[in-house]
Every structure is written in structure tokens, then in C-alpha cells.
Amino acid sequence: MKTINYIAIIAIAFSTTLTAQIKVNSTGKVKIGSLEDPTKNLDVKGNVIFKTVAYTSGNLIIDNTGWQGYQPAVYPQLNNAGSIGKIYSSFKEVYSYSYPSPSDSRQKENVRDIENALDIVLQLKGVKYDLKKDYAYNDSSIKDNKYEASIEKDRKNKIGFIAQDVYKILPEVTTYNDSADMYAIDYAKVVPVLVEAIKEQQLIIRSLQSEIENSKLKSTSNPANNIENPLANENALFQNSPNPFTENTIIKYFIKDDVNTASICVYDMNGSQKKNILLTDRGYSAILINGNELQAGMYLYMLVADGKTIDTKQMVLTQ
């Protein structure tokens, strides 16, 4: 009888302690850290820590010390550790009003300039693509035809880069997962390169604008420099106008009568020829370049007469 009494006392003590820490109702709903009746399958009041098997510093913590100390925060115990989703098992969507990234100068060292940003950007190629079904959704798990039609539409006409191509040009913004043999792109890291590329392009535009203004001043002060002056007797290529341009620009030139073949060739900054325009007129003449035939960027154009390059100039097409 004494043994039974001892067991009853222990059971009561254990029940009291358990009630103070965890409460389970008849439907299986659980409340931890509060005496309130549970209304969720699992409801925890207070901080939570999910420990790894080895109990390392890579634990996941959920607490209420977020913004101003009362909003929930989820973070790894070790700084710069962990991930949400995996490269081969990713979330379809992540919603947030902002995505701030730690960028304090006190966390950085060996800070240096991004060089040749414009050249890098000019090599990048944006594409439209469809996400393969194998990665968009599992056909066998979907029974609702309307839902399937919705996600089938959603997997198409996406915009981005090809990670393998970007890796060859700007590896710093890509990641590679050995176990999955897959690449990913951190698009946010492309922004600083774009900013520096715009600044480089703006310097080029200002330089060209200054060159145009100087050419105008020279033409006004010295009639012999005017491109319409018939006294000039040498093959010549003149600066396009307007420059920079958005829609169309005019390139003027002078070709002597004894020239057999002449053309104006347009190249991008990678040295790829984009246009080769045969010139049939002699003397002073001009050609029109349509902006919609080229992509926005900086180009070189040259006058070639009887196989000889007469002159080369720059022009800028803006969007």
C-alpha cells in the first residue's frame, strides 16, 4: 500500500510540474510555456531554439527581440550561417516589404573599386525563359485543373540571366552547389556593378558632349573646318549628330570622286561588326542610323575608302 501511495504522490507532483510547462487538451493541441488552453496544434510562448544534432553554434533561434523588442525574429546562432531553402528545393515565392542586407563598413575590409564595370555589363545577356516542369511543380501531386493551369502559366515568360554564362563574366555574383551540381545567381550583387557602369557611361557621354561643343566652336570660328565647306579635298568622317542619341542619328562624311569603294562600318565595344553601309555618293553626304536597329550602348564607327581606314569615331545610343 505504501508503494502505491508513493507512486500517486510522484504522479501528482509530475502532473503539476508538467501542467506548468506544457498543456495538452483532448484534441491533441499543445501549449508550451503558458497555462492558457491550447488553440493550435503547437503554440509556444517565449523563445525557441532548434539545436543541430551536434549542438553546434549553427542552431536556429526564434525569439521576440526583433524590431523594437517585441516583434518575432528568426536567426541562426552563428552569424553568416544557414539558409532558407536549398538550391534543389527552393520556395516558389518569398514576400517581404524590404530585403535589407548587412553592409556596415565596420564589417568590411580590403574595400576596392569595381573596375571595367561597363565592359562587364555589356557582356551580360538578359534572357526570357520558361522554367522546366520538373522544377516548377510535380504533375502527379496536382489534382485541381485550374491550379495546374495557373502554375503552368506562372512557369513561363520569366526574365533573368543564365548562371553559367554570368559565372564566366562575373563569378562574384554566382554560387555553385557541389552536391546538386547547380548554379545560382545573387541578383542583388549585380546592382553595384550596374551603378558603376552607369557612372562610366556618363563620363563617356560627357566627354563626347564636350567634344561636340568644341567641334561646333571650331567650325564657327574657322570656316575652313565647316563640314559643308567645299574647299576640303580629303576623305573625311565627321561626328554623328545628335550624340548621344535615342532614336536616330546622322553621320556626315566626305569622299573624293576618285575613290572606288567606300563604306561606314559600325562596331560594338567587343569588336563585333553590327553594320556595314556601302557608300555610293561622293563628295559631301550623310547616312542615317536608326536607333531601333541597335541595342543601347557605346559604338565605334569608321570610314573605309578603298580598303583604307580614314577615321574612327564614337557614338552612344541611349534607351
Explain the layout of strands and helices.
Layout: H1 2-21, E1 22-24, E2 30-32, E3 42-44, E4 48-50, E5 60-63, E6 73-76, H2 117-123, E7 127-129, H3 133-136, H4 145-154, E8 158-160, H5 163-169, E9 174-177, E10 182-185, H6 190-221, E11 236-237, E12 248-255, E13 262-268, E14 273-278, E15 283-290, E16 297-305, E17 308-317
Parallel strand pairs: 2-3
Antiparallel strand pairs: 1-2, 4-5, 5-6, 7-8, 9-10, 11-12, 12-15, 13-14, 13-16, 16-17
Helix pairs in contact: 2-6
Overall description:
This protein has helices at 2-21, 117-123, 133-136, 145-154, 163-169, 190-221; strands at residues 22-24, 30-32, 42-44, 48-50, 60-63, 73-76, 127-129, 158-160, 174-177, 182-185, 236-237, 248-255, 262-268, 273-278, 283-290, 297-305, 308-317. With 319 residues, it is an alpha+beta fold. The chain has a 4-stranded antiparallel sheet with strand order 14-13-16-17. Strands 1-2-3 form a 3-stranded mixed sheet. The longest helix has 32 residues, at 190-221.
Q: Summed up, what is this model?
A:
The chain has 319 residues and is α+β, with helices and mostly antiparallel strands. It has helices spanning 2-21, 117-123, 133-136, 145-154, 163-169, 190-221, and strands at residues 22-24, 30-32, 42-44, 48-50, 60-63, 73-76, 127-129, 158-160, 174-177, 182-185, 236-237, 248-255, 262-268, 273-278, 283-290, 297-305, 308-317.
